[in-house]
Amino acid sequence: MKSIIILCLVAVATANLSTDSGKSLETPCPPENLFGETEAQDCCSNPDSCVEDATSRIVDASKVDVYDEFLKYANEYLTRSYEYFFLAAQFGTYTKDRPGFEKLLNGLSDSAWNKGIDMIKQMAKRGIPHKFVLNKDVENIMSSANVTEMAAMAKAADIEKNLLIKANDIHRHHSHASLTASPSCGYDGSLSHYIAEEIMESKVDTVRQLTGYTNQLKRLFKQDPKLYPLSVFMFDQTLQ
């Protein structure tokens, strides 16, 4: 009995919806009292006039590419991920077996890749299409096979420090920009919060760690160059 009553109620509700305003549920035309009579008639008479202009942007990026620097910054993370990967591969060979260095650099590679993808998703949330364009000042990937442990660590510290500096500049733009000034109409509180919380805080710790490792290696070499190979071997053990 209950099932019969439920079926009847569903049938009545469906009939009321399909006959409301004389339109079917399949009709994409908006109600005239919501969008205005002119807009509703145009949309129904000419579907081509219904432009898909709905967007999730909160910043007008039609005049000024306010997110370009952030997009380039995300692309640099992907590039640096490959560079870390190549550096890590050099310490996983028979001639230069340094599993600790390899693990550290592979971790940096994975972290850079995941963060780059996450930043692209941040732009997608705002309806900004991604562009795989790098800054001209980004160095080429270092692929030399003759890289020492100290040079690799110093290179990683330099990369992370440059990424931190750029994050600070981009954060300044999106947190202090003026909405009334067309050259800097990129104020985005949510994005500036993301940069501060998800990028800069962890990046400060990474820079501190890598610079500390670099200074330790320099100190070991300075104390006794003859024992430096053994010192590097012991240092590598601590990184595993």
Question: How would you summarize what this structure contains?
Answer:
The protein folds into 2 domains: 2-49, no CATH class; 68-239, Ferritin, core subunit, four-helix bundle (Ferritin, Up-down Bundle), CATH 1.20.1260.10.
Notes on the protein architecture:
The chain has 240 residues and is an all-alpha fold. It has two domains: 2-49, no CATH class; 68-239, Ferritin, core subunit, four-helix bundle (Ferritin). Helices cover 65% and strands 0% of the residues. The protein has helices spanning 2-19, 32-35, 37-45, 68-89, 99-125, 149-176, 189-223, 228-239. It is elongated and about 85 Å long.
Structural class: mainly alpha
The SSE string, one letter per element, is: HHHHHHHH
Overall spatial form = elongated
- Overall number of strands: 0
Largest sheet: none
Beta percentage is under 5%
Please outline the helices and strands.
Elements: H1 2-19, H2 32-35, H3 37-45, H4 68-89, H5 99-125, H6 149-176, H7 189-223, H8 228-239
What key phrases describe this protein's structure?
240 residues, mainly alpha, Ferritin, 2 domains
